[in-house]
Design brief:
- The protein contains six helices and seven strands.
- The chain is an alpha+beta fold and 220 residues long.
- Strand 1 and strand 2 form a beta hairpin.
- Helix 4 crosses helix 5.
- The longest helix has 15 residues.
């Protein structure tokens, strides 16, 4: 699978209507995997016939039988692919994500199984930086932190400054990128926006002076 969020713009009702059984998931993967045509992974032949399973494709030349899950994060799953789709949907649509323990409790799987699959998912979702955010982008900075052991209140040493950029869609939000920065200066904010946001995007920010010098190169 590519880095894109395959459930972008899908709410829970639409998701549950679309994916009811394992075969629905395999059909969806098949459509995405061979969207641009079929080429055998072993001999590059572009002709295929029916495979072992209904959604597989068998090369007419070398007879290699390929599953829609082969070469994807769903390959060699130890549990139902329908559950795997639900896990991907939960993690990619919940603002705070889900821990492996939460996933274990909800889907009745071993925590280590959930942890391993979540690690694989996070690797797949890691950006290649080839698809910058486009359209209307809201950007903001905020501070996060937590209590330091042995000290009362919030510890300054544990606080971090985060900058966040989010695509605003007609039906909600799209992709988002966030990074920890040292200072909310034009240099660091500019480096972040250049890295993740298209130069053609319309950037909406607060009135912080760090964005002022960036108006010459970005639509702010």
């Amino acid at each position: 699978m590519t880095e894109r969020n395959i459930f972008r713009g899908v709410n829970s009702i639409k998701f549950n209507q679309r994916f009811k059984e394992d075969k629905d998931c395999l059909e969806y993967l098949s459509e995405i995997k061979w969207l641009s045509g079929y080429n055998c992974k072993r001999c590059n032949n572009d002709k295929f016939g029916k495979g072992k399973n209904i959604h597989n494709r068998r090369c007419t030349k070398c007879r290699y039988d390929e599953s829609p899950t082969a070469g994807t994060m769903f390959e060699k799953l130890k549990f139902s692919i329908l559950i795997a789709f639900h896990i991907v949907f939960k993690i990619s649509t919940k603002k705070k994500g889900m821990s492996s323990l939460e996933l274990s409790n909800e889907f009745e799987l071993r925590q280590m199984t959930c942890w391993a699959f979540k690690q694989k998912l996070q690797q797949v979702m890691k950006s290649s930086l080839k698809s910058p955010l486009t359209g209307v982008i809201h950007v903001d900075e905020f501070v996060i932190g937590g209590p330091e052991e042995g000290k009362k209140g919030r510890s300054k040493g544990l606080k971090k400054l985060i900058v966040l950029a989010v695509e605003i869609l007609e039906d909600g939000v799209g992709r988002a990128y966030a990074e920890a920065i040292e200072h909310s200066s034009a240099i660091e904010l500019g480096a972040f926006l250049t890295k993740y946001v298209s130069s053609e995007a319309e950037v909406v920010s607060d009135k912080w002076k760090g964005y002022t010098p960036l108006k010459r190169s970005l639509k702010i």
